Amino acid sequence: MATVTKENIGLLHEKLTVKLEKTDYLPSFEKALKEYSKKANIPGFRKGMVPAGLIKKMYGTSLFTDEVLKTVDRELIGYLQNDKLEIFAQPLPLESDFKQLDVNNPADYIFEFEIGMKPDFSLPDLANANTTRYVVTVTDEMISSEIERLRNRYGNMKDLDTVNSEDDVLNVIFMEADENGNETEGGIKKDNSLLVKYFKEDFRPNLTGKVTNDFVIVQLDKAFDEKELDFILSDLGLDKNDPATSQKHFKIQITKIGLLEKRELNEDFFNQLYPNQEVKTEADFRNKINNEIQNHWNAQAANQIHDQVFHQLVDHTEIKFPEGFLKKWIKTQNESAKDAEPKTDEEVEKEFPTFISQLKWTLISDKIVQDNAIVVNPDEIKAFAKQQLFSYMGGANLSDDQPWVTDYVEKMMKDRKYVEDSYNRIQTQKIFEWAATQVKPADKDINAEEFTKMAEAHQHHHH
Question: Could you tell me the pTM of the whole model?
Fold first, then answer.
């Protein structure tokens, strides 16, 4: 009768020894031989009439090996399930001499495997964690700036005959040229759209009075201030870190002149932006914009709390790992990849800290999901797909029960990779939402610029 025994060989590192008696696998081997002889199609013999000796000679070794290994696998899985062992990956076979398998001399065999045990651990008490909720102050300037952006976005373009204002919009063609305006053969040629005020103040008089098809010859750094110059260089495909590029000459031809007429602040405009939301006056409009800006920054502040929670969980959860087993497992993963060079010990050591960090977060996430019965159901994935679709379309106020929306969602639900990715994203969001309910953050007022700098510095630190 087969037996499996366990022996500790390191931290959370065990050796499993599977002992097989020949009675454990012989009956199934003999049955497999008979089944094969019934199905075998060998020239010179009628189907089902091939002598057992010939079948054994031709296929016996491979069938014998298969049945022995199937039996080992069955015993191993049964042992892991019966003893409820939580392991990483799968058991790795230790050095085994498969030459010991002899179809002509069945015997008792021993196979050895190593396993890495998943550790028990406790999460830190998030209620005692030092966390901060940043409250961004929304200013009148921020509200006015957003209103101007909306007035411009929904404004109407009026065609003009001549350039006469710094607010005029110019459709132009940038053509690389020399200082005399002779176009460079094979040089850059690019359409663009610019406000007159994007040019340097002392250059703008060169544009006043120009009409369609007129042109100006510019040296880039003399026509544009630094901020606009960076944008122009990037749009032209030039390296902004190369000083020589900003001194290039271009012939800029005007193809169209227009003036953006901003939308008036009236009830028609308010209704267009916020249908059926009782926004009737400019005061109502400013309040609505104020709330939207505040909600935006509140969402950013919530992300900051999620980030703080992540660090609390990762930095203050002590987890031990079967490092010897995991390093060996990493090497086997590369060895099994087709045409891949086996990883060296040095490569494994270099990758290991990142691997362990990711594995640690996986274990923490799994524990939170299990302990708090966090689930993601199909309806949530469908709602997520709709939300993504609407965001792709610019956040338009679309009805989510239209047939084409339903068709899109059903199509995405048949995409296995999309469903898996969406499931993981929703589950991760739920993990952080749960964690955010456990902390007791202290509020801290901050302005938008300081908050943005802080977030960017933290992001840079992560990379």
Answer: 0.75
